[in-house]
Design brief:
10 strands, alpha/beta, Rossmann fold
């Protein structure tokens, strides 16, 4: 018999992963409600739509957020990681745009965290010094006894310039693991797959969708710890998505 002091905790088994090389909107529209799943994602910035006016992109963003939210079952959550932008001297609050979509669909905001992109007190230009992380659900409500920090001092290591950091991914995936019965994470804009890799490392299954074949290949291969997939290991000549 092994004593408690010598017992070694077993790591959770790695979850399964599927990455579809497809258009996220077409893929989502072809799905019904994703039973047993929660969604974690970052949606594309206006910079990826050079033919859109700002108003057209805002309309696209709200409609896409609605589509993502509509695929979440009542016992799951949808978590968005987004960074605001400054455009033509005005501030575009992506958290507000997502909240509009959520209210229209009857999804409640369970929590809103601020993730620091730069040390507090400094001045940044062009992009704010923080990102939003917002969690919504139609059927679940927040358990205050399981509350976690509202401000994350850093997002953690990123696998591409504007990807979601590892620490932010861990917070999101652990919330799903500890507060929902869902055991599959879906990221319809998965990029290099950091959300998928973190979910798998925690024992959750993961499904990603990525339009770029190059990024889809990386998303299938990325593992935790990041190792060779760390920033700078392979340049990505395709335009990066802004969260």
């Amino acid at each position: 018999m092994v004593s408690d002091e010598h017992r070694v905790e077993q790591a959770p088994p790695q979850g399964k992963r599927t990455v579809h090389c497809a258009d996220a909107l077409a893929w989502l529209e072809a799905q019904g409600v994703l039973a047993g799943c929660s969604l974690i994602t970052s949606m594309p910035d206006v910079s990826e739509f050079p033919s859109f006016t700002l108003a057209e992109w805002k309309d696209w963003f709200v409609r896409t957020a609605s589509l993502v939210l509509s695929r979440c079952p009542d016992d799951g959550v949808t978590i968005f990681f987004q960074t605001d932008i400054k455009k033509d001297g005005t501030w575009v609050d992506k958290g507000y745009l997502i909240q509009k979509a959520a209210e229209q669909l009857g999804h409640s905001l369970l929590w809103h965290k601020v993730v620091c992109r730069a040390p507090p007190g400094g001045v940044t230009f062009g992009r704010p010094a923080y990102s939003h992380m917002l969690c919504f659900s139609r059927g679940l409500r927040a358990d205050l006894s399981k509350s976690t920090a509202d401000v994350l001092p850093q997002a953690g290591e990123v696998t591409w310039t504007r990807g979601m950091g590892v620490q932010a991914c861990l917070v999101a995936c652990r919330y799903v693991l500890d507060n929902t019965p869902t055991r599959t994470i879906v990221d319809p804009f998965c990029g290099h797959g950091t959300v998928l890799a973190v979910a798998n490392d925690l024992g959750l299954d993961a499904v990603g969708v990525e339009l770029s074949r190059k990024r889809a290949r990386k998303a299938r291969a990325l593992r935790m710890p990041l190792g060779d997939s760390a920033p700078g290991s392979e340049p990505d000549s395709e335009p990066d998505r802004e969260p």
